[in-house]
Amino acid sequence: MDKVLERLKVLIDSSTPIVVMETVEEVRAVRMARAACSALNLAVFEWTIASGLARSGSGSLESRLEQPIPGGYHAGTVDDVAESAKALYDSREPAKMLANLEGITIEAAFILKDLHRHMDDPVVVRRLRDVGQKFATNRRTLILTAPKISIPAELASLVEFLELPIPDRQRLRQIIDEVLVRVSKMHRLQRRLDPGGLDAMAENLRGLTEEEAERAISQALVSRYALCPEIVTDVLEAKKALLKRSEMLDFVEASDTLASVGGLDNLKRFLAQRRGSWEEQARDFGLDPPRGVIILGIQGCGKSMCARAIAGEWKLPLVKFDTAAVYDKYIGETEKRIQKVFKVAEGLAPCVLWIDELEKVFAGSGPDSASADAGVSSRLLASFLSWMQDRQAPVFVAATCNNVNALPPELIRKGRFDELFFVDLPSQPERKQIFAIQLSKRKRNPADFNLDQVAVAAGGFSGAEIESVVQTALYAAYSQKQQLTTQPLLAAIQATVPLSTTRAEEIEALREWAEKRAVPASLPEARAERA
Fold it and tell me: pLDDT by residue (tens digit) across 41-79?
């Protein structure tokens, strides 16, 4: 966090005309701006459309804040000096406020809140440009804060962007202590959580902003009136809800492991070799964290199940990328959304990022993308490729794909993903294993069934079709008030037309493509028998 504060101090001290802080954490941005100005002995002014332009006061920041922390930055309560100060005359309207700034000679930083709502006014843009050009010659800086800001081309050369990072584990640990002190003043709390539990609590908060983390901690403490082991789970549930409201990432419960996936032993061996390779000991050994895999193949053969099971097997958080929610109707906003996804995923690291049906994310990224969607898909692909190539955080991307022909060739080359696996229809031994798993999930003993017979009868069936067969047989047995036996399974198989029959030509074409371009997910002995 000190790095961001130091960067802001450099920007202000070097006479950067306009600094843009695009964030939903307005209070945090203002605190940081005040801290930077306090260290530089500069005055601070704040503007809102409701209150106008007012001076925030002078003197040391620590004299106005409770509980200062090293670096001059604070996450606790701030007295809103701007609200109590008298606003400059006739400074509520943006254009008039900017005109007043042209006449101010004092060295200062001017925090302008929510000015983005007035950026479509040509007078405001012209005034901003005039003020920025004058501020470039001395220590005066405009600091713009808003959730989203589109900078006009006229201002591009005057602007520097400053990003507020998601808090790391150390900062989250500080926030827990600060919120605990604040809540303890209002409520009597029992304290039954040891330092290890506090560290686990901080780990469960990773990926949230500072304000979101504070809110999750406060709600968890007040709901139990105690700092207890249950709080660790409470904040994790709060994080899941907050991520879901972001509408781009969904926190998925990863309860299954690779043991719940039938077959695919070659893929399982690949994943087993990379387990724990993101840890400090692996880095000391010279290993880089694994980047991810693309799992392509025939529909219903366990690609998505395997992607989910990776997180359960490795005991890592699993977040699903919502491909539909990332697109925005405004030009440039889609690219900002994808960057936010990357930022949150890195904040959660180590984690597994699940992208289902990867081909649909970049469906329009071909040569005609510019005419189809103004080039949005192409720019989205470029952002994704750049992140896959350059990221340092241990985020394992588990992507599934049904139509390999729709994937851009630059996406599947080595260096983006670790490997490209092909999932074929299960062999007879794999079908037997899948039947056993499905029956066990439904409280049946696989030893009570002739699994060899049903595995042979289900030749050409996918894993999803085998699951459907078991479910259909259970319905039949339940309706007849009988126990499930081998015969209802065989009857359900007989009544099912598998995808391998209705889409035989497409499946064969996919096999031919993958034969020399992808790594089989099954071992050779399993592939030797294919129905």
Answer: 999 999 999 989 998 864 333 333 333 333 334 433 444
Using CA atoms of 481, 469, 427, 452 in order, give the dihedral in degrees to the nearest 10. Answer: 20
pLDDT, mean over the chain: 84
> For 326-330, 365-369, 383-387, which range has the lowest pLDDT when averaged over its residues?
365-369
pLDDT at 103 (0 to 100): 84
Best CA proximity match to 494, nearest among 456, 458, 444, 440: 458
Asked if residues 111 and 138 have their Cβ atoms less than 8 Å apart, the reply is no
Given CATH 3.40.630.30, say whether it is the number of domain 428-512+520-527.
Answer: no
DSSP 65: B
Lowest mean pLDDT among 9-18, 57-66, 106-115, 452-461: 57-66
Helix (H) or strand (E) holding 94: helix 94-102
- The string of DSSP letters for 399-427 reads EEES-GGGS-GGGSSBTTBSEEEEE----
> Is the separation of the CB atoms in 435 and 466 below 8 Å?
yes
Distance (Å, whole) CA 301 – CA 465: 9
Q: Specify the pLDDT at position 461.
A: 93
Instruction: Tell whether the model's pLDDT for residue 529 goes beyond 90.
Output: no
pLDDT at res. 450: 94
Do the strands 52-55 and 43-48 form a parallel or antiparallel pair, or are they unpaired? antiparallel
Interval 5-20 mean pLDDT:
94
Distances (CA, A) of 365 to 368, 379, 400: 8, 8, 18
pLDDT at site 72: 39
**CA distance readout (Å), 42 to 9, 13, 139, 141, 311:** 11, 10, 9, 10, 49
Q: Assign domain 258-423 to its CATH architecture.
A: 3-Layer(aba) Sandwich (3.40)
Residues 291, 296: Cα–Cα separation, whole Å: 17
Q: Does domain 2-161 have CATH number 2.60.290?
A: no
Sequence length of the chain is 531
Helices and strands (DSSP H and E) totals, the chain: 23, 15
Note the helical H segments in 14-93: 26-40, 81-84
Bridge partners for 146 per DSSP: 22
| Alpha-carbon torsion, ordered 85, 88, 90, 91, to 10 deg | -80
Question: What does the DSSP 8-state code read for residue 254?
Answer: -
- Burial class from Cβ neighbours inside 10 Å (0-12, 13-18, 19+) for residue 455 reads buried
| Measured distance CA(214)–CA(242) in Å, rounded | 12
With b for 16 or more beta-carbon neighbours within 10 A and e for fewer, the 184-221 pattern comes to eeeeebeeebeeeebebbbbbbbbbbbbbbbebbbebb
